[in-house]
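Listing S7. Sequence submitted for prediction.
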Amino acid sequence: MEQNWFFPPHEGIRLGDLASQIGAELSDAAVAGQTVHAVAPVYRAKPGDVSYMLSRKSRDELKSCHASAIICDKTIASVVPSHIPVLLTSKPHTAFALAGALLHGEAMRPSYNTSERGIAPGAFVDPTARLEPGVEVEPSAVIGAGAEIGSGTRIAAGALIGPNVRIGRDCTISAGASILSALVGNSVIIHPGARIGQDGFGYAPGPSGGMIKIVQVGRVIIQDNVEIGANTTIDRGTMDDTVIGEGTKIDNLVQIGHNVRIGRYCGIVSQVGIAGSARIGDGVMIGGGAGVNGHISIGNGAQIAAMSGVASDVPAGERYGGIPARPMRDFLRDVAEMAMRASERQKKKGGKDE
């Protein structure tokens, strides 16, 4: 890959310092003073780069590797050539994430779109809005009446912050996002085009066969350290609140319906749809493209496989998959049985052709 001017290399961190900051042990103390500047995949890493390995499957990539260090577990350190220093850790994935944040801090949240700081001349901030010192508002952004925004928060170009919205400190609201009827905590990242706090999908049968809109007067509450992906939509509650718990990470193109409550430290992957009034516990992981029925509960620590259809409650700690979603062992058994039957049908068909 050519030099990446979007995310330029760091001025340099000593390997010894990097090891201590990511909780790793440097295999060769003699190189502790060498500096590293960037992260790179194993196969094209050059001097000054840090890479990581999670398994022996990457050993062939080491043939073209010239990294200044490789982060890995001690169980696979033996496959790393002796001329490449190793940063030993029992959690290489976590250590690499920490290293990336140190070497490429500017990539950890959406970057500035203009060179101006403070309140841009092209932004509109209602006179009744309250902004703490250090808030940045880029051109074409709109801050509505009575809104309150904490210090260190950046409102990017074209974003809309609706009336009376509250946003905490050190947040990033990216270009083109809109936030209505919401309370947002500290250190929240909302990526471009996300839609937060619009009314949910609620209708009652009309007297003449049509549908009558049900009023949506709840809020969206987003707790601290949440990240919400591009073009994700989170509807406000009907009469209660839609809640996204602390530390939860939501991918792009996710739909979260009204009154949904999502716990702390969940991971929700792209194109998941969660229908209204569902309850998602703490630490739940939901794979891409899964659908979650309304008015059901998914217990703490449960895992939902990609492309699953969750129609009923999922107990805490369980792994579910399939349509309808069921315990993973049952789902895999069903898949194996269907594959076996398909094979038998194919054999019979082949025999008739003969």
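Caption to Listing S7: primary sequence and predicted structure tokens for the chain studied. DSSP finds three helices and 39 strands in the chain. The helical segments are 15-22, 92-103, 328-353.
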